[in-house]
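Progress report, Aim 2. The chain analyzed during this reporting quarter is listed below.
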Amino acid sequence: MLSTINYPSPWPHWMGFLGWVWPLVVGLLVSLGGCRHPEPPPARQIVLEQSWELESGDRVAGLWVTGSLGDVSIALNGGRLRAPFSGRVELAAKGYRCIYFSTPDVPAYLFRFCGVTQPQAGSVQAGQVIGRGRHIHFATLRRQPDGVWAIVEPSDHVLKQSLNQPLP
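Predicted structure tokens for the chain:
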């Protein structure tokens, strides 16, 4: 008959716990290193025909300018902003939390929304939520023959579509 001799361990009893937990912790840390968020899409740069001394994204006395000449401001109060048509949302390279919405339905126009939180960049369907905001600043931009963009009179139809619940 074989007998087992139990020698006293120089380690406290809880150290044996580390023997099987350690590989789990290392495996978890290695796997978390591989869970990176995808790179955000590049922000869209446009050239505006007009320029003003103060534009969205500038700072005055340490505070953000969120709207500018040519913008219509709406108190959205944390509500949802929706895609007015099927199209594409792009982050704007300039401005305070601005996005551009474009659609093949009106190809010569861009619609700029500033003050947007939780923007949903990429392809969107009409009525899909594209962001939220307390105060949204809306501008309509038209592409000029020389390729620059000009701010033009805002479209109330597009703005209404962006603020209303989608039709069933």
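The chain has a mean pLDDT of 81. Helices lie at 15-33, 156-163. These observations will guide the mutagenesis work planned for the next reporting period.
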